[in-house]
Design a protein that fits this description.
about 40% strand, 1 helix, about 5% helix
């Protein structure tokens, strides 16, 4: 008789060198094996303008160089639409004066920062803050 063995597998990538811009890709779609259709994940995602990572994300070498892992949100890309194969992408970007802009095809508008948090992000762009 063969017995099944349950294992918990943890896959972890470590940062060797601190990126100037950290890009976080959030899974927005999944393949439904029952229907054979790619579907959109529509639940809300909380994200902040400031991001601080634990040193556990750094390799030993990077840990010895960096005393902090602080990042500032500079851009967000969102997908508007209810289906995976339909919709539209919108980008929100922060300029050097800390103003936020909505880039929607040819329409570029300055917006209030709080509006970017109303959308479910697809990509988050965080710029490294060198506090040393």
């Amino acid at each position: 008789m063969i017995q099944a063995l349950a294992l918990e597998v943890i896959f972890k990538d470590l940062i060797d060198k601190m990126p100037k811009v950290l890009i976080i890709h959030l899974n927005t779609y999944y393949f439904d094996h029952k229907t054979g259709v790619t579907k959109k994940i529509n639940y809300a995602i909380d994200f902040n303008e400031d991001l601080t990572l634990s040193s556990s994300y750094l390799s030993n070498e990077a840990n010895s160089i960096n005393s902090h892992l602080s990042f500032e949100l500079i851009s967000v890309i969102c997908h508007k639409g209810q289906k995976a194969n339909e919709g539209h992408y919108i980008s929100f970007c922060k300029d050097d004066k800390q103003s936020w802009w909505s880039l929607n095809d040819a329409k570029i508008l300055q917006i209030d920062k709080k509006n970017i948090f109303k959308f479910r992000p697809y990509l988050l762009f965080y710029q490294y803050r060198n506090l040393n």
